[in-house]
């Protein structure tokens, strides 16, 4: 059974850093397109970073220079490194996967989702 489990969320001060992890089971992360999304209360889900099976990546302009995606094939994990966090980045962060190899950040195209991990940015 294909499963995604996120971890690494929590409380961080403004300007701080956090690394989120997405553990995959039932498939290998280097054979699927895996993306990170976030959703803040009252807002639409937003695609942040995506990595496809070939290692190609794409990201949203809103996180340029702050967030980076990476993948560890041996551990079957995908990470989202976040830095210089701001209060408005507080949200539920989820990873998602789809078999089709591309670099789309459109949530509706993803058919496998994790439960999410909550990030709070506050002093």
Features:
seven-stranded mixed β-sheet, four-stranded antiparallel β-sheet, 48% strand, mainly beta, single chain, 11 strands, 123 residues
- Please give the count of helices: 0
User: DSSP strand (E) fraction?
Assistant: over 45%
Unreliable segments (pLDDT under 50, ≥5 consecutive)? none
Percent helix, as a range, is under 10%
Silhouette: globular
The number of E-state strands comes to 11
Rounded to the nearest angstrom, the radius of gyration is 13 Å
Gap between N and C termini:
40 Å
The major β-sheet equals: 7 strands, mixed
Order of helices and strands: EEEEEEEEEEE
Q: Provide mean pLDDT, rounded.
A: 97
- The structural class is mainly beta
Structure description:
This protein has no helices and 11 strands. The chain has strands spanning 3-7, 10-12, 18-25, 33-39, 46-51, 57-59, 67-72, 77-82, 91-98, 112-113, 117-121. It is globular and about 40 Å long.
């Amino acid at each position: 059974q294909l499963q995604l489990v996120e971890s690494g969320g929590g409380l961080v001060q403004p300007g701080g850093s956090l690394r989120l992890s997405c553990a995959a089971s039932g498939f290998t992360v280097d054979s699927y397109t895996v993306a990170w999304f976030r959703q803040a209360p009252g807002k639409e889900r937003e695609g942040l970073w995506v990595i496809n099976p070939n290692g190609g990546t794409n990201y949203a302009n809103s996180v340029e220079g702050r967030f980076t995606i990476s993948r560890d094939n041996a551990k079957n994990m995908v990470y989202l490194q976040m830095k210089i966090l701001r209060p408005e980045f507080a949200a539920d962060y989820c990873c998602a996967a789809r078999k089709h190899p591309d670099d789309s950040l459109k949530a509706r195209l993803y058919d496998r989702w994790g439960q999410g991990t909550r990030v709070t940015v506050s002093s």
